[in-house]
Amino acid sequence: MAGRLVVKGLIGKKVGMTQVFDDAGVVTPVTIIQAGPCFVTQVKDEKSDGYSAVQLGFGEVSVKRLTQGQQGHLGVMKADKKGRRKGKGIPAVRYLREFRTGKTTDYHVGQQLTVTQFEVGDKVDVVGKTKGKGFAGVVKRHNYAGGVRTHGQSDRWRAPGSIGSATEMSRVPKGKTMAGHMGNERQTAQNLEVVRIDAERNLIAIKGAVPGAKGGLVIIRDAAKG
After folding, report:
1. What whole-number distance in Å separates Cα of residue 59 and Cα of residue 38?
2. Which of 2, 21, 158, 182 would give a disulfide with 100, using CB separation of 3.0 to 4.6 Å?
3. How confident is the model over 134-146, as pLDDT tens digits?
4. Read out DSSP for 104-151?
5. Among candidates 129, 127, 93, which has minimal Cα distance to 113?
């Protein structure tokens, strides 16, 4: 998002997938996301922070679920020895995320952002954390074909085989695909189309699938390659 004058972005939760029909009866698979309302919790600029960004908060929770540092940052802390008071107009929110922007004058602390900033037909990127699948072998994790099933190799069907070279490198190359933890990593689905918007319920329908499980936290922003 660096270099963009105005940022369009929201934090939300993945509700699930469904399908919608247009006037011609064509079906479109969509992912429903409860996006916002989000609150501007901090505005950063080049002079004070070295870069321009807008920090958004999402997911209202009880104040007691936040640390005192978080309460002070959001302005929901009761009076303390340093004289901090309530009054920033921000509720207690659980999630904070930054969106880089080249124009911070359009935002102020306490401002509320909703799905109405997006329109049907917009192209967006959706960032989420993929489903964790635990420890997996190379066949499942990297689509290895496995070993031959003849000549008595009954225990090598799903084995990775040789992992290093003998003479030229004499070591295992960095980044070698092997068995290990599968999933549970940040992933971005790019250039997805906004199909429908329900401003009353803070819902947005995006064409196709997005990373993560139901209830997972996602970030919606302008398409970087749009």
Report:
1. 8
2. 2
3. 999 999 999 998 8
4. -TT--TT-EE-GGGS-TT-EEEEEEEPPP--EE-HHHHH------S-T
5. 93
